[in-house]
Amino acid sequence: MLTAYIQNIDALDNDVVVSGYLIASGSYTTGGDTANLGAAVPAPGVVLATAAIPSSGPMFCPDAWSITGNLTNGYFAIPGTGLNLKVKMSASIGGSELAAGAYPASVTGDTIAFNVQFNKLN
Length: 122
Hints:
Blueprint: E1 2-11, E2 15-24, E3 27-28, E4 33-36, E5 41-42, E6 59-66, E7 74-79, E8 84-90, E9 101-102, H1 105-108, E10 112-119
């Protein structure tokens, strides 16, 4: 399971850029786990006018990376449906996909940053 925390929402002319971080818990699913950004809350200590993303998707230009220096696992952001961000994880940098099952400590102890863009609702 991936829990999403939003740190910033920039509603530009035609696009919405959303950034924040993910915390992994429980078990990993083959093919990647999904974070529902529509259900995300502001990160602790962050004050947002609203955590609502003014878009219904689809997302484009997703990115995910470790901000705590995890050099063991790789994170690959994949556009999901609607406001869902899918993150596929590797067992090593450039290696094969993480096996399904309980997340290793290298992932649960990590903070995974994300940045995605959406088309803005008009």
